[in-house]
Automatic annotation (TrEMBL):
Highest rank taxon of the organism: Bacteria
Entry-linked InterPro entries: His-Me_finger_sf (IPR044925), HNH_nuc (IPR003615), I-HmuI_NUMOD-like (IPR054307), Intron_nuc_1_rpt (IPR003647), NUMOD4 (IPR010902), WH-like_DNA-bd_sf (IPR036388)
Record protein name field: NUMOD1 domain-containing protein
GO molecular function terms listed in the Swiss-Prot or TrEMBL record: hydrolase activity, acting on ester bonds
Residues in DNA endonuclease I-HmuI-like NUMOD-like domain copies: 135-169
Source organism of the structure: Prevotella communis
Amino acid sequence: MIEIWKDIEGYENEYQVSNFGNVRSLPRYRKNRYSEVLKKGCLLKKRIDKIGYEYVYLAKSGKAKFCLVHRLVAEAFLVKCGNENEVNHKDENKTNNHVDNLEWCTRDYNMNYGTRPNAYSKPVVRYTLTGEYIDEFESANDAERKTGVHHGNIAACCNGRYKTAGGYKWRHKSC
């Protein structure tokens, strides 16, 4: 497959994005105090945000804007239909921004896609502080509804960040 480049909307003749998920600046003249200087174009370094998505900064008129790479690719290469405002990674790899791996979708579709729903509904078990089994729940949210202990605190116990929540020990159920 050949790498195809398209201008980024709002940054025409300044930046381009490719169907492979690369972003580059184009050669352009920049004014300094005395004259115009040719600034060479180059591939921009992609960084990864705290939840795993690649991003770049695009500058215009002295102001830098944070831009997610997968959204730049989708906006340039994919046709958006109706109320589809989110971009889904089909293989669930947040750094694979190839156009063939992306699709416009609704929020509901994106949240329920692939293995993500299972990540939020792991069974949890409640124990006394001395380690005696009490009962189990379908998920941390289910446990919150039935016990009143916040699901975030239950999840923090299950993941080892807290020792207890609501006066109990909590663990993910072993298979």
